Amino acid sequence: MEAEAEVEAEGTAPGPGGTGDELVTVGSMSHKVAIVMGSGSDRPVMEKAASTLETFGIASEIKVLSAHKTPDQAIEFAATAADQGFSVIIAGAGKAAHLAGVMAAKSLLPVIGVPINAALDGMDALLATVQMPTGIPVATVAVDGATNAALLAVSILAVNDPDLTAQLASYRVELAEKTLAG
Ligand code: RP5
Question: Which pTM was predicted?
Fold first, then answer.
């Protein structure tokens, strides 16, 4: 009950349209991350974001939405993502990759862009994702960098979540140990 009150106070409870069933409680906080991609062909890369979030106990929902093929649905999702209880949007797309930009244009949530290598070694998608005009930022990770996108989402969510911060610190310690072990 106390935890519920805290969640409501923080404004992270699901809004209208969100069932709440997908939410996973991390400490006293609940987080839900949206993972959107321009095509089903992006799924093998973008599923790494979902699995990374899962290791931190963070719920995610994967959706295929194209800035070009399903623009109305993409815009509708971005415009309602916050009300659906999402705290961060991770958007992956290849080629002329406008999906992350469209998400950022229609949502005030932090948007993390993943350029997908679908052509030209991903350079086309990298530039399309990272070169946002001033005022509408997309935090862009490396080509096919879905794992880092998830870790950046964890960092964002951890700012007001000490338990998640502790998990992230443990992750970094393990990473250092693995690196030193060669
Ligand atoms: C982009 O074009 C998608 O994000 C994908 O990376 C790429 C190829 O899409 P498909 O032709 O496989 O649908 O829109």
Answer: 0.86
